[in-house]
UniProtKB/TrEMBL annotation:
<dbReference type="InterPro" id="IPR005814">
    <property type="entry name" value="Aminotrans_3"/>
</dbReference>
<dbReference type="InterPro" id="IPR015421">
    <property type="entry name" value="PyrdxlP-dep_Trfase_major"/>
</dbReference>
<dbReference type="InterPro" id="IPR050103">
    <property type="entry name" value="Class-III_PLP-dep_AT"/>
</dbReference>
<dbReference type="GO" id="GO:0008483">
    <property type="term" value="F:transaminase activity"/>
</dbReference>
<keyword id="KW-0663">Pyridoxal phosphate</keyword>
<dbReference type="InterPro" id="IPR015424">
    <property type="entry name" value="PyrdxlP-dep_Trfase"/>
</dbReference>
<dbReference type="InterPro" id="IPR049704">
    <property type="entry name" value="Aminotrans_3_PPA_site"/>
</dbReference>
<keyword id="KW-0032">Aminotransferase</keyword>
<dbReference type="InterPro" id="IPR015422">
    <property type="entry name" value="PyrdxlP-dep_Trfase_small"/>
</dbReference>
<comment type="similarity">
    <text>Belongs to the class-III pyridoxal-phosphate-dependent aminotransferase family.</text>
</comment>
<keyword id="KW-0808">Transferase</keyword>
<dbReference type="Pfam" id="PF00202">
    <property type="entry name" value="Aminotran_3"/>
</dbReference>
<protein>
    <submittedName>
        <fullName>Acetylornithine aminotransferase</fullName>
    </submittedName>
</protein>
Amino acid sequence: MKLFDVYPLFDINIVKGKGVNVWDDKGQEYLDLYGGHAVISIGHCHPHYVEMMTKQLNTLGFYSNSVINKLQVELAERLGKISGYEDYQFFLINSGAEANENALKLASFKNGRKRVLSFEKAFHGRTSLAVEVTNNPKIIAPINDNNHVTFLPLNDLEAWEKELAKGDVCACILECIQGVGGVNMVTPEFAQGLQKACKKYGSILICDEIQCGYGRSGKFFAHQWLGIRPDIISVAKGIGNGFPMGGILISPDFEPVYGQLGTTFGGNHLACTAALAVLDVFENEGLVENAHLVGEYLMDELKQLQQRTTHIKSVRGQGLMVGVVLDIPHKEVRNKLIYEQHCFTGCASTDILRILPPLCLTRDNVDDFIQRFETVLNEL
């Protein structure tokens, strides 16, 4: 049997990681400013994380949700406290797509409606409902195309209010900073107006914080820059620092019903241990504040680089979620960064570099990256 060939791969075999660096099987070191799609939050192979995971694996890796799991309770309590959502409820699953599936399902259970509003250029996952609210026809199969979704422009409050006023909208789902869409930013005015309109018309406001959340923006959640408090918040990626995990934070307005939601693997002992280790490091090393401060420094350095080189059109983002808009396709830039400068970055569209490093990134790491990036730009 061979692998189902759906991933265009770089010809690099990464076999080791530490902090913000990874190494290939030939011993070459790379600066990792992508963190495996924004998954690595506290750094590769953090010693506290490794210690906790090893200890738990030697104790109990898994048992089902048919018995008490006190690690789940501890995680919910600590996550509520650190994020400012102590009055919310927490449901654990295994991935971002699952988180959005359950968020949308719960919203529909709440108000009995089916229609969803989503942003143009949105990305919310690749499974049934999650892919239907994703604005990319290439990955929506006919079986997923069920006419539940209306895609609307970013920050066009009038357009969203017009649709909400029809009275049939189940939920509005938004990334407060779009990831795959190109690090596009929601404005506070739009977010606050949308929240008010959702309450007026009985629609559920869902914030997809899978990529932009969990400290990456410099606050625990990106929507906290916008002055809103959504009904449901979906999380994944950075929650487990690479261990498959997701969850939804649910308003106290929702009443749980036995059997309404469920999962085999979600919230297992090893996953909860990963998430608790991440929160330990967040608190002990101040990584959310670090994302804010180092993110500001990164943005400033990129804007200075823009002034002294060609090819950078604009820089946007928040914290350690940064988009660099180029006047040339990103493909050659990324290839030179990876194969010549040994630095991983992400991308969006055809001309945007996405920078999504571990939240332990330092100013020295930023200076290192700027030097490598400038070398590449000067060669093009």
